[in-house]
Amino acid sequence: MRRSLATIATGALLVAGCGAEAPRTVTLLTHDSFDVSEEVLAAFEAEQGLEVRVVPLGDAGAALNAVALTADDPGGDVLFGVDSTFLTRALAADVFLPHLAADLDAVDPSFLPPDDRVTPVDFGDVCVNADLAWFADRGLAVPRTLEDLADPAYRGLLVVQNPATSSPGLAFLLGTIERLGEEDAFRYWAELRANDVLVTDGWTDAYYGAFTHAGGGDRPLVVSYASSPPAEVLFAEEPLDVAPTGVLLDTCHRQVEYAGVLRGATDVGAARALVDALLSPAFQADLPLTMFVFPVRGDVALPEVFATHAVLPDAPVAMDPARIDAGRETWIARFDAVVLR
Amino acid sequence: MSRGRTALAVGPLAFLLLLFVVPLGRVLTVGLLDAEGGPLTPLLDVVADPRLREAAWFTLWQAVASTGLTLAVGLPVAAVLSRLEFRGRRVVEAAVMVPFVLPTVVVGAAFVALLGALPSGLVPQRGVLPILLAHAFFNVAVVVRTVGGLWQHLDPAPALAARGLGAGPLRAFLVATLPRLRPAVAAAAVVVLLFTMTSFGVVLVLGGSGAATLEVEIHRATVRFLDLGTAAALSVVQLVAVVATLGVYARLRRRAGSERLRRATAARRRPRSAGERTAVAAALAVLGLLHGAPLAALVLRSLRVGDGWGLAHYRTLDAPTRAAVLSVAPLEALWNSITIAAAATAVAVLLGLAAAVAAASGSRLGRFADGALMLPLGTSAVTLGLGLLLTFRTGPLAGRGAVLLVPLAQALIATPFVVRTVLPVLRDIDDRLREAVATLGAAPRRVRREVDLPIVSRATLVAAGFAFAISVGEFGATVFVARATSPTVPVAIERALGLPGAVNLGRALALSVLLALLTGVVVLLVDRVRVGALGRF
Q1: Assigned CATH topology for domain B49-302
Q2: Which residues of A62-99 are buried (b: 16+ CB within 10 A; e: fewer)?
Q3: Percent above pLDDT 90 for chain B
Q4: Closest partner CB to A337 (pick from B50, B404, B486)
């Protein structure tokens, strides 16, 4: 109907609208960091008789917002990449259908979400990373805690990201608030500022720009991921036995990433199959080396480089999604006022 | 018959009502009324938020600074181009106009290419300075056209008299020439102020996180914070600022002009003194730097592959790589852009012709349609986009229907250009020509076919070219309504520029070059059609 109307009104418009649609395509909306091995995806496509179309929508926040703004018909079937930071927003925007993934019982119970509309897929910790050689060369002890970072002995050594523009930057800010309490956290940030903390717009500027180890910068401490050290080993130009960077475990904040079947999906059946696949052993085992995150399934073996070089905090700290949603904007504004102005 | 022509205004007006008045009404209600905390809360929140207050302040001062810089570069260039004759003047005149027709994201990409190639520390790659330079880059054309347009017709006698009485060249200029140019300078300044105040693509690409205007904050509030109330309230602030600027402009227009003018060639002469020759050289050097360097950097760096040169960034444009950030191959985005812009052009030409014919008939409704269709031009593209997003989130134009919404949004911006191109031509058709044909026995219908049609069809072709060029480069409104599954080239360029890595940069630059070529070729063709075509019988 709409089409026939359009033909009468402006035939030319249709040229833009038409495309030869394959019979069964399932569209995965996601963030720019999504990645999966060619073979794993191909195996799923062959098994299900589906073609997966991956549509990146910006970073995690932008991807969810794009979907939320067009919830009735978001142009896709599955959204992957809603993290703890935005979970409450996704649930409030009501973009997902309830779905109980096939392998949900294999997931470590600590990752199970409060709501049956989202399925946990992976997790990662955002932590301060240290250039170990830099500290060894100077005979300076590697700092351990958040408080250490405000110590004048470590003045001018830390680079973080602006939480208004960077997702690890926001995660790290949330971690300081969760660990220290809101008021103390911003007093702490004032101390960090006095201790000459550097703030960049994004993770790349910080890690590959200001960080001594990877960027040739002058900051040996950088906010990054707990999975960064195995990445350094994997991508090292010469084989390494020991990771050149270390993780400050007492600074970590945990993020879980979720996927869900979109309420506006055109093919709900295919969408359910795809969400199930994200939790399948094949996809889960593929996660560490494609997206540098940890699988939520406990029964999947980690690749050797992860098993050897990745460390995780024994007692992870993760702020409750509802608290994040209530405070996010206020905290970004307070960070702006305390650290950047 | 006149009633039939008047009725033609109904279509354009209905279009305007649906795609402009209703969306703008949505922006106003969301920004002013529809808040959880009661009426006006979003606006009050905006006023209370230091970051947003700073964005408003930055919007204003960067616009003033950009205008100052544009005038500082543009006035000497206008002087040289309008008073002096030298070899290659026409080429230079055309070159000055080039940036004005380039899509804003291409301008942003060109400056990214240029600043990234400069030795580090010379000019920061993101921030205020790059924004000011890019604004000057494409607004010098406004100054040269507006001020130079008057200047070249200005009678040089008063200035010569001042020189004869012993005044130096500068004093003669200040006393005898500047006062007469003032209306044109002021008009150009206000237009540049308006353009730079509502500038979006350039600021988004070049601003970094430190330099955000209201437009960028509207976009950020929408796509990052999903805070439509704040976005709409910011749009209201922006609307007020734009309306105030337009008011100033209207006053200036009314005061402008009763100057004794001469033929252009009479006022222009070869440079005589060494000072004048230096002035020509200096103007050309500044233009070469400001205009030539970014475009040269854009082309050169799009060909830079690793440590060598090649077409790799162009060759991979048809490759649908999963690792890259677009859901489609860049060439598919180019094809999207072309079809969408073609559809927008078709709509804009139909509506624009209808409105122009209605307006030329002299009826009140027709003239009203002509004026009303100009309104979207005065509104910032981001506000238009936000309004469309708020209005058509649900309903037939949501979701897959959005493929219709994008060309309609672009048509909204392109239609006034069609009216402005066709209407003067329609009005200028000599009635004696019609009468002559009628005297020879032609029926009214035949008169229209023999007289009006050939003349109007040529103007329509020109209008269609402009409409296409505007649509294909449109970014501000498109970015709010385009879907990730069918991105346009400007949207794709902006996305790729925001991502790290040489591959993304290379692709963004290659796409920018292609888009610039496409726009350039269309405008060039239009220019050829226009030359010597009209008004000579």
Answers
A1: MetI-like fold (1.10.3720)
A2: bbbbbbbbbbebbbbbbbbbbbbbbbbbbbebebbbeb
A3: 36
A4: B50
